[in-house]
């Protein structure tokens, strides 16, 4: 299993001129994206330059924008579950209760927050601070890491799928791939966040393994089942300012940040191997008008390579009443489809569903 740290900065809103966004031809769009990408300075560069017109490829359609305002206020019945992990290793009764909470949250929401997860507050705070410092460095310093080579160990850019997305996200990201096979080279990581990234990833690896055990138990499997498969995606997000929304029962629900809590996202491949028992749900980030939003995500997945093992619905979960919903797929094949999905023509797991 390898870890991928995605260190993101969603930029603050910027003032734009009325009617500043225009829909041009496909050629104009490609030209605009290329010019933006070749600055090697991402969204941060636009904000720093005091941009007066947001490039059109960042702008959502009017029907999508219309869904945002009504979703800002939630009723109290629509809040993603918060799970207290205290005692999961020491108290069998408490562990059973946590597993039941995780099972419910994973099957109905696809997201939940965890508290008392064991990651020290100073580590969380320093990780956020160092991410902020990285993105606030000069363009010349950051340009060393700006690339669209998906196999690089360190990738800094704006939208890893910038050229294929229908609408780009208003954010810049730093991806740090941290293999567990000893091949990691810390000297390749940006100096400003090198030490804390390593420390943070160590804590997240422990938490990730615990979550994989609890998810396995929630599926009725032995605790080490998912770990032994060398698979499972658990994405933990440190949400610093807010703006995260998840889709639930036809509504966009705000995820209210809780101090020191981590947000867990089930992810597509967990839905696939659980044969739809656990859900991967749509989510989005709203840009803040009060300042940048900074998050740090840690993804757990198998190695990306042409020789990846295939993953399908776990056989122990299948029966005549619960036949497989998906064909087997490698992680590499999944992401190859995900990132080649030109302008969002199809999405995620639907491509891998078995047809009657």
From TrEMBL:
Keyword Iron assigned: yes
Domain of life: Eukaryota
Ranges of residues in domain Fe2OG dioxygenase: 189-304
Keyword Protein biosynthesis: no
GO molecular function: dioxygenase activity; metal ion binding
Keyword line: Iron, Metal-binding, Oxidoreductase
Protein family according to the UniProt entry: Belongs to the iron/ascorbate-dependent oxidoreductase family.
UniProt-recorded name of the protein: Fe2OG dioxygenase domain-containing protein
UniProt organism field: Turnera subulata
